[in-house]
Amino acid sequence: MKQYDLIVVGGGPGGYVTAIYAAQNGLKTALIEEKDLGGTCLNWGCIPTKALAKNAEVLRTIFDSKDYGISIDPNQIKVDYAMAQKRSREVSKKLNKGVQGLLHKNKVDIFKDRAKLVNGTNVKLTASEEILAAKNIVLATGSHPFKIPGFDYQNPNIMTSRGALEMTDLKASDEVVVIGAGAIGMEFASIWASYGAQVTVIEMLPRILPNEDEAVSKEMTRAFKKRGVKIRAGYKVTLVSIKGKKIEVNLEKNGESEKIMGDKLLVSAGVRANTENLGLESAGIKINQRGFLDINDQFQTSCATVYAIGDLTGKLALAHVASAQGLEVVHQILGATVKKINYSNIPRCTYTYPEVASVGLTEEQAKGAGYKVKVGEFPLLANGKSLAMNETTGFVKIVADEKYHEILGIHLVGGHVTELIAAAAGYIDLEFTADDIAQVIHPHPSVSEAIMEAAHAVVSKAIHI
Amino acid sequence: MKQYDLIVVGGGPGGYVTAIYAAQNGLKTALIEEKDLGGTCLNWGCIPTKALAKNAEVLRTIFDSKDYGISIDPNQIKVDYAMAQKRSREVSKKLNKGVQGLLHKNKVDIFKDRAKLVNGTNVKLTASEEILAAKNIVLATGSHPFKIPGFDYQNPNIMTSRGALEMTDLKASDEVVVIGAGAIGMEFASIWASYGAQVTVIEMLPRILPNEDEAVSKEMTRAFKKRGVKIRAGYKVTLVSIKGKKIEVNLEKNGESEKIMGDKLLVSAGVRANTENLGLESAGIKINQRGFLDINDQFQTSCATVYAIGDLTGKLALAHVASAQGLEVVHQILGATVKKINYSNIPRCTYTYPEVASVGLTEEQAKGAGYKVKVGEFPLLANGKSLAMNETTGFVKIVADEKYHEILGIHLVGGHVTELIAAAAGYIDLEFTADDIAQVIHPHPSVSEAIMEAAHAVVSKAIHI
Amino acid sequence: ATAGNATDGRVKASPLAKKLAKEKGLDLQLVIGTGNNGSITVDDVKNYTPASQAA
Ligand SMILES: Cc1cc2nc3c(=O)[nH]c(=O)nc-3n(C[C@H](O)[C@H](O)[C@H](O)COP(=O)(O)OP(=O)(O)OC[C@H]3O[C@@H](n4cnc5c(N)ncnc54)[C@H](O)[C@@H]3O)c2cc1C
Ligand SMILES: Cc1cc2nc3c(=O)[nH]c(=O)nc-3n(C[C@H](O)[C@H](O)[C@H](O)COP(=O)(O)OP(=O)(O)OC[C@H]3O[C@@H](n4cnc5c(N)ncnc54)[C@H](O)[C@@H]3O)c2cc1C
């Protein structure tokens, strides 16, 4: 029986990062992955969606090129969505190969098989029937998109994100309905709207991107409407039925009903943990009410030698959470200092047009938590770089406490703001105040200056508004 | 005679920011500007160049659109450089009006006139002959492009950046020669190369972007060569002469000479302070050997009531330096804490394709300063977002001290990295170590993750390489 | 009054200053900060001598 210091189950950003880091730190490590190295993230999540978003950005740029002194007869622009998908798949493939290379380089043993726990230190490979042993086991089996029951998912036009990443026949004349206005639903809506499709986004909660600050939802509603996307927030889907080649979606809000016809339907309603047939019982591990695995601050399940990380743990379903948890598990196993992860201080990004990025508490949450709040805002309309780039939709909103100007939350809407939020995450993580941010000399011209201005607004007043 | 708490001479990013901030803080303030509010930066510098860079980016995107499943017959793309310039001028105009609005709103008295010092507390307006009095005076008269002597600047095809921002007749068939490979020369070279011009960049020092880390110059040389830009670093221009409609530029390196023909020539060889006819003598202020005004840590000239900021002071000729100095002058006047500006920790940006951004010391400078250096590097080729965006040229290089992993310098090359450097400037300013950066949870996928990876490389090893 | 930077019970120090102070076994409560808003910088820690702060 092969003996390891660490067996990692699942090769997503939780599992593969854990395995590499463990191996770099001298642990003899095995990784078991039944499908694709890189997991959901690299193959059916973060990466292929961003490749599609880039395609969409290119297309938008072309359609707007008149503003920049370039004229192209629109009839001469030939758009091939299947080719866009092809590039997206190729990027995933390349990264998948890259992960394989990294695991090899770091001497992680890879088993392409399905794993099942035998007990707290043994794992059985389902196909080969081999049993592996380890001092510690990390479960990083991830999640899959939730399928709202009652829809016919055999119909190729009714899909979750997985199907949407394989769908190649989008036409500019298509009507598309998206159920669920979280990050994933909004990202696909943004991509398809860029390709000219008539998109409707339906959200049960009263506003799109319901986890974001209210100001963000408002700005994004405005921006998406301006792009021609229909927003139906606070609506309940009552019935989905097939009408010939069309999908009919029935909605209701305050007793009033509405009917929307679509050629395609995306169901984007959260994720469910991959816990089936994992042998959890044999290690005495229970699934919680929400279907996820509970972990303590050391990332241990109720079985001390079995850790769980990533989407499986039902925290924020984000790749960087999975990876960060994985690094800390390795610290725990090595007896090094383990960082306690504060899940409210994780940066959250939505790669739409415009983009959304945030970290920390919303204004409402901060007030709910009992803080006396001071808000500093700055609109990109007053930012020189945004004007030069012709991307003036959006703002920076800093939620700080009144007394120390401690940063509680930073909320961004705008072009490429997902690249600005890391700085904010650093400031929050290391407990800097708005006064600190305000006096950091930011480069001119840059969108990042808007963060400095919003910090000035917390301290006293912004300069450029 | 009108009495002020503060008179500001010059309405660039040094002067107008000082005036607004002074007024916000209760000082009765006058601003004297003889030409355009916003100064070089808004009218003939930072902003219009970035608007042009955006135009160029749009054009590049269109030419590369085949990669994204979009096909356009190149003959159908009509490019109008004059229109691109028009947009650039309009953006400047809009910001110029914006500054005027801000000054009005904050109740700063604006004098559209030329100022001359009478003594340390009086200023004479040249045209109106009015004399204004103030407790303190800030000189923020900026700079102008240096004209290498001996060239015929009457010829419309021989220009400094000022002329380049007015030139409207660029053709894709043009040969363009740029003398000076600092940020400004490189930015124009990048723009014109995007428009299809055959560009040659000549630099006297051994490498382009000579103030940057050597690794940056190397990567940019490679990237520009790949784009078809000819690089002649370590070359001396020996003669520029007119040959019919062409400009002939003679170069020399190690005794070997070369001849380059151009349709246009940009001279981009630094700036000279605007000190002429300022009445400096009457306030007892001397110009230093380099032609700039010396200031102390409180930004005072040798006359204690007269401050100087911005390009006039011969520090880094950057807009955000001018503005930051201005804020501190106001603190000084108000008797508040004055931040000592560490000029090596100012973010420096070059808005080329790819972009360059850096802060702190280069590896060479750090070693020269006696540090035992530990370098952490991460190539964008290994960054998921960069792959998804198809922008894999570039890297992150962190220069840290070996013992505490104190961040001494961060050097970035890549798409839009000028938006990432503020974070790095914050990290340096607030004294983060590489260990601190490494454990900040960065969003996935993002280019910013490459900074985290380079920090990991300083601490021990990067994960994804 | 006690010298030092513990206003409102908060000690503000840069990450690097904290690292160095820990290594030196120095109590940051005793150090006067000269950085932003009285934050303790690495130089404050480096330059700290009990005598120099007595005043
Ligand atoms: C469309 C979409 C877009 C997204 N975009 C982003 C984004 O931009 N940013 C972001 O941070 N997050 C994004 N996410 C979320 C992100 O993909 C997940 O948070 C992340 O993949 C979770 O990582 P993980 O390692 O926990 O699980 P996963 O990535 O799901 O990996 C789990 C792996 O375990 C394997 N596995 C499962 N059971 C077994 C078993 N018994 N034996 C062996 N192998 C097994 C699976 O095959 C899978 O490869 C997106 C998700 C989707 C669906
Ligand atoms: C092509 C180019 C691109 C640049 N790009 C960038 C960039 O991307 N980022 C960056 O940070 N910097 C950039 N710079 C540099 C930046 O423009 C300067 O650092 C900045 O403008 C300096 O600000 P200032 O206030 O000191 O002077 P200026 O902006 O030069 O303003 C001085 C003002 O004073 C006025 N003035 C002068 N004398 C008198 C007088 N006697 N009476 C009344 N008014 C007077 C002038 O008319 C002028 O408006 C660029 C410069 C150029 C030329």
From TrEMBL, chains A, B:
FAD/NAD(P)-binding domain mapped to chain residues: 4-326
A GO-annotated cellular component: cytoplasm
Keyword annotations: Cytoplasm, Disulfide bond, FAD, Flavoprotein, NAD, Nucleotide-binding, Oxidoreductase, Redox-active center
Cofactor note: Binds 1 FAD per subunit.
Residue positions binding FAD: 50, 141-143, 311
Keyword presence, DNA damage: no
Binding site for NAD(+): 180-187, 203, 270
GO MF entries: dihydrolipoyl dehydrogenase (NADH) activity; flavin adenine dinucleotide binding
Principal place of residence: cytoplasm
EC number(s) stated in the UniProt entry for this protein: 1.8.1.4
Annotated family: Belongs to the class-I pyridine nucleotide-disulfide oxidoreductase family.
Annotated protein name in UniProt: Dihydrolipoyl dehydrogenase
Source organism per UniProt: Acetobacterium woodii (strain ATCC 29683 / DSM 1030 / JCM 2381 / KCTC 1655 / WB1)
